[in-house]
């Protein structure tokens, strides 16, 4: 599964401009004077970027068609993988949006997003969880596994659309977008 690794660099590259460029160019003041709420502005920018990334994901659709032409794959697993990929991209993008709002520099926003998303991915790797099991309480190990994007993505990529995984990604997106609103509101000129 290359999606997590690919998204680790693709999504922060898209997210780094969401708010850092607005701050650097001074256009955030203009944006905040429009007759929309700050939450609507954050949601609008997020949805536009998510649509762009989802379009990039949709460009792989001919591969799915080719695989179906050449054989008989389990299309349910492939469809679930697409859903999981889109949700994970949205979660990465929400993280990037919040971190982009913290800084004026796109490069800093990119690096921060890569680091935070890497940590949120790394938390689900078996090596990390096995290391924690050696000395940490089971509750902590389970908590670390549950905050990992990888744990939830892998469950969906196996073809199992568990409501808990879908809710995790949607709540993660909502929480990071709410944090974006708070950060921008605190940094208003």
Automatic annotation (TrEMBL):
Membrane topology: Multi-pass membrane protein
Main location: membrane
KW Membrane (keyword) present: yes
Keywords recorded for this protein, A-Z: Cell membrane, Membrane, Transmembrane, Transmembrane helix
GO cellular component assignments: plasma membrane
UniProt-listed InterPro entries: ABC-2_transporter_component
TM segment ranges: 42-65, 77-95, 107-128, 166-184
GO MF term (any one): ABC-type transporter activity
Protein name from the UniProt record: ABC transporter, permease protein
Organism: sediment metagenome
Higher taxonomy: unclassified sequences, metagenomes, ecological metagenomes
């Amino acid at each position: 599964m290359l999606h997590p690794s690919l998204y680790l660099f693709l999504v922060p590259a898209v997210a780094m401009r969401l708010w850092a460029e607005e701050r650097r160019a001074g256009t955030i003041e203009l944006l905040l004077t429009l007759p929309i709420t700050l939450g609507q502005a954050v949601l609008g920018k997020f949805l536009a970027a998510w649509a762009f990334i989802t379009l990039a994901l949709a460009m792989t659709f001919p591969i799915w068609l080719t695989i179906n032409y050449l054989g008989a794959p389990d299309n349910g697993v492939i469809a679930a993988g697409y859903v999981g990929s889109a949700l994970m991209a949205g979660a990465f993008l929400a993280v990037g949006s919040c971190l982009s709002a913290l800084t004026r520099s796109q490069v800093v926003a990119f690096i921060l997003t890569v680091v935070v998303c890497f940590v949120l991915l790394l938390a689900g790797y078996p090596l990390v969880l096995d290391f924690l099991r050696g000395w940490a309480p089971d509750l902590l190990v389970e908590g670390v596994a549950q905050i990992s994007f990888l744990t939830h993505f892998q469950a969906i990529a196996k073809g199992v659309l568990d409501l808990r995984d879908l809710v995790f990604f949607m709540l993660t997106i909502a929480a990071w977008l709410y944090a974006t609103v708070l950060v921008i509101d605190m940094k208003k000129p």
